[in-house]
Amino acid sequence: MNLTLTLQSLISGIMMGAVYALLGIGFSLTWGVMRVINVSHATFGLLSAFVSYSLFKTFGIDPIASLVLTLPAMFGLGCIIYWLLINPITRAKAVIVSSMILTFGIAIILENLILLMWGADPRLLTTSYTNKVYVIGPLYFQYPRLLGFVMALVGVSAVQFFLKRTLTGKAVRAAWQQPEASQLCGINLKKISMITFGVAIACSGAGGVGMAMLYSFEPHSHNLWLIYLFLVVIVGGVGNILGAAAGGMIIGIITGLSMAFMPYQWVNLLTFGLLMVILVLRPQGLFQSEV
Amino acid sequence: MAHGNDRSGFYRVKLILAGIIFVLGVYPWLAPPVYFISFAFNVLTYITLATSWNIIGGYTGYLSFGHVAFFGIGAYATAVLGARLDLGPALVILASLPAGVVSALVAVVIGYPCLRLRGPYFAVITLCFAFVTEITVRNLDFLGGADGLWIKGLAMPIETSRSIFFELMLVLTVVCLSSAQWIETSRFGAGLRAIREDEEVAQTMAINTPKLKIIAFAASAFFPGVAGGIYACYLTYIHPDIVFDVNISILIVLMALFGGGASWVGPLVGATLLTFVNEGLSTFVKAEFARIIYGCLFIIVIIFMPNGIVEFLKNVIVKRRLRTKFVKNKSSNLLS
């Protein structure tokens, strides 16, 4: 086996995986905390990718810099969506099922809004540094991937910090472990859920921009992204942020290696097959879920 | 009286249903435009798919998001059987029955490990199963690969052949609906409902839950398999993009839950309504707007009618009946 090629695909796999992880942590958070499976999670990421694409094309704002604008906007959007649509169903008996269908409706609406506003053409986020590479010995580090990797690192650590160190984050974890008891301690469950949802959507916004820097994207891309989300979350364990990060890396490495050594059409088969095997053998994720 | 004579009400419903089936059976021979026959065929296909999905999804509470795989397997099995045994166009249609059995067998094999998972995990694994089958079929050369497969069509004018397929699908739909109705009232169905309500308790009540789940999964895979076979003969051409379209999978789930998963009436109403809405919207409105309205529909149904539209309407009617009764009694009391 060619060592350089292996190393190279390993590295690019890790970098891609970091972006998957960034996209996945929000999904993991809503699933774990609120028992809401947000099927439209990837669609929000796609929306943010299109918005930063437009900001870049019309005003020349760098996609990374535009996160300053898009992240608060996505947070607000998440809060509004939670208040209007998710909140009414959280008391239903089968929250998981109804949330899947409800958010599927949201995904359809968003996808078609994107289609209406941006059209069906595939887009590429081509910035001034898209084609730049860092060369260390025989290995290449593409700039966009490096940036995505750094962004993902920052994002995942920020969410981890938020959950472990801030008061609101602790309230989120409390609400997750003991919804009733946390209310007795004076935690406003609705408000906490709203903040969680907003944070999750903001994460998906950041992840969407990251994905847009790696791949071309079009209004239907979110379907494939969603599969990656499920993979990342199920490998990492539901609600486990660091697990999701590790899961993202693992998925990235596997796809990176399989893209290098397998015929292209079988790569997705491997991905889905892997997900099925993991689901059957270890549905709780490869790492024990920690809170 | 509204509920004085339940038995006669039951027979009345049966009579009405028989009438509807008869009208539907006669309908294609009244020479309507081909478009309407095709549309009615689509409605029946979706009713069959949603009703059979409901056996595992609605009664048992296991949401399978990969039911299109069974549809596609049925279609491909029919085509391959027809080609290998060199069957004539008329006999190919009969091959859809063994194709349904193939689907059911696949369901048993897949269901054995997968049915141990619950809730969203089961939904995800069945979705993956649908993707895996699609990719496999697309990349196997003897199944036509990305070029698809051709099936010998009936050498008849298009109106006649479509009418024949319509009749076949009608028969399948009726069989499927009556099996669903039978399951609902049988001991087997009671076991499935027990699994949906609480699987652990069902187990302690000596219900063999794994066996029941596998049987339910196989039954709910059989009808899509047969439907896929008929659909393949109807189209005379199958391609992974058509018969393994994930949107069909999701649509089936939505139709069944839209109508309400608790009884066989739900998927019937849901599939009919949604197919009509879909067709109407896509004829009159721009496709994107149509789908936005479609998405809003799901949100509205989930928030305001969580048990499905049938249950919702039933509640409304019952409430109105109670109110009129109450008001009537009150006025008569006042008069006397």
Present the secondary structure layout.
The complex is a heterodimer of chains A (291) and B (336).
Chain A: H1 3-34, H2 41-59, H3 63-89, H4 95-118, E1 133-136, E2 139-142, H5 143-165, H6 167-177, H7 179-184, H8 189-214, H9 222-236, H10 241-261, H11 264-281
Antiparallel strand pairs in A: 1-2
Chain B: H1 6-26, H2 34-59, H3 67-84, H4 89-94, H5 96-114, H6 119-139, E1 149-150, H7 158-185, H8 187-197, H9 199-204, H10 209-235, E2 237-238, H11 240-243, H12 246-259, H13 265-284, H14 287-304, H15 309-335
Antiparallel strand pairs in B: 1-2
What tags apply to this protein structure?
heterodimer, A: 291 residues, mainly alpha, ABC transporter involved in vitamin B12 uptake, BtuC, two-stranded antiparallel sheet, 2 strands, 76% helix, globular, B: 336 residues, 15 helices
Q: What would you say this structure looks like, in words?
A:
Chain A is an all-alpha fold and 291 residues long. Chain A is built from 11 helices and 2 strands, in the order ααααββααααααα. Chain A has a two-stranded antiparallel ribbon with strand order 1-2. The model of chain A has no long low-confidence stretch (mean pLDDT 86). Chain B has a domain at 19-246. Helices cover 79% and strands 1% of the residues of chain B. Chain B has 15 helices and 2 strands. At the A-B interface, helix 3, helix 4, helix 9 and helix 11 of A face helix 6, helix 12 and helix 14 of B.
Would you kindly provide a brief summary of this structure?
By secondary structure, chain A is mainly α. Chain A has helices spanning 3-34, 41-59, 63-89, 95-118, 143-165, 167-177, 179-184, 189-214, 222-236, 241-261, 264-281, and strands at residues 133-136, 139-142. Chain A contains 11 helices and 2 strands, in the order ααααββααααααα.
